[in-house]
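Bit of a strange request maybe. I'm writing a small parser for structure token strings and I need a real example to test against, not something I typed by hand. Could someone generate the tokens for this chain?
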Amino acid sequence: MSEEIYAKYPPDLDPVEREYLLSSIKNWSIEHGLAVRPQPSFIPQESDPHGILATNAPVTLFPSPFPRKCFEEARALQKAYNELYAAISMDEEWLGNIMEE
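Reply from user aminoacidic:
Good idea to test on real output. This should exercise your parser:
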């Protein structure tokens, strides 16, 4: 993948692009259950008399760049981690003892 597309990060958006991105993210968040209910003290009672208002959970438009080296190290460890995780989850006796502690 070309590094040139990341020369300006985060990218500048014109108002139409920004509105489209915000709308898309809000819709996706609500459609997929990524929602939170604010504290009742945050919303005036006359605006939400039944306490049912919900909004999308906080998200970021442009995530912080993640170093490629760290990503590659994590990928290299993933198979061993998956095997360890699977082995632990199948050892019911060991898990039972840990939970009892």
